[in-house]
């Protein structure tokens, strides 16, 4: 498939009109211009639409597209973005982050050097709190070839992931009624399980700043509030990593404890793919341990 742009910089946003300008200005400073900025406004009630209408009238070397949808969460926004993307590469950059001035130029050069006879789904660069400053562990050499499973051990911290759009479109996020979140690792894991490789780079191209209302800060509560998406991630990881029974029991117990106030026994068993008869005794053990702790 032919794409009119090399890169789609994709930004899902929700009520971040006061933060988006930093990212916008970093895109204006890019040393590489063969990209589009595609934004999915996920139901914002602030001035996001007016802000983008203003920026679209400005003289930029790259097109800006902003599409509105009812609030459905980041993964639904990514699915929408993938359907609309006109770039060969799909690079998700959150609304409270920004890029180094040479970020897209580096992505273009790195992609051009990827082996064409191997099964690569994209590349991963480093992120940091500032250009040249990262809390992430650097590996030996400038780059190495692996897959997304390396992010469970060899690669730590927040990273900038860039995928081939055509490949990513084969791995859309499942959508569960009433839920608005699941970890993006669901699709990354599926790519790795299917044999897709990724080239990792040490260079910092993406600068992040976590906000109090961001998804990262919300953290564990998002997992609790979205049990089906959470369970999908854990049960697929158990399959991909060939969990032994002991590890599965720990996973089942942890999910039961987290979901017991939100889900029925039947739902817990279905979501995490465990024997239903185990749910009640696991709840009993949890309640007993809670009782013992309170008595101490």
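Q: What amino acid sequence fits the structure above?
A:
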């Amino acid at each position: 498939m032919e794409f009119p742009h090399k890169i789609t910089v994709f930004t899902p946003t929700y009520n971040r009109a006061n933060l988006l300008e930093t990212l916008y200005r970093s895109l204006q400073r890019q040393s590489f211009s063969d990209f589009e900025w595609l934004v999915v406004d996920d139901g914002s009630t602030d001035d996001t639409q007016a802000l983008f209408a203003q920026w679209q009238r400005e003289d930029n070397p790259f097109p800006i597209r902003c599409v509105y949808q009812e609030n459905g969460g980041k993964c639904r926004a990514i699915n929408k973005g993938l359907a609309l993307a006109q770039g060969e590469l799909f690079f998700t950059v959150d609304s409270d982050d920004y890029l180094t001035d040479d970020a897209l130029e580096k992505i273009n050069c790195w992609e051009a050097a990827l082996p064409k006879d191997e099964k690569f789904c994209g590349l991963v660069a480093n992120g940091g709190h500032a250009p040249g400053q990262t809390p992430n562990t650097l590996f030996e050499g400038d780059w190495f070839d692996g897959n997304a499973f390396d992010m469970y051990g060899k690669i730590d911290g927040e990273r900038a992931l860039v995928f081939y759009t055509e490949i990513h479109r084969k791995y859309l996020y499942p959508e569960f009624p009433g839920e608005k979140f699941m970890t993006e690792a669901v699709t990354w894991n599926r790519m790795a399980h299917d044999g897709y490789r990724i080239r990792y780079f040490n260079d910092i191209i993406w600068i992040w700043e976590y906000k109090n209302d961001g998804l990262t800060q919300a953290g564990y509560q998002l997992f609790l509030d979205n049990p089906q998406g959470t369970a999908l991630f854990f049960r697929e990881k158990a399959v991909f990593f060939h969990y032994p029974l002991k590890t599965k029991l720990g996973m089942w117990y942890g999910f039961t404890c987290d979901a017991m106030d939100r889900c029925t026994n039947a739902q817990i068993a279905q979501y995490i793919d465990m024997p239903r008869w185990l749910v009640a005794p696991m709840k009993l053990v949890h309640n007993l341990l809670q009782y013992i702790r309170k008595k101490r």
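Q: And what stands out in the fold?
A: The first strand starts at residue 5 and ends at 13.
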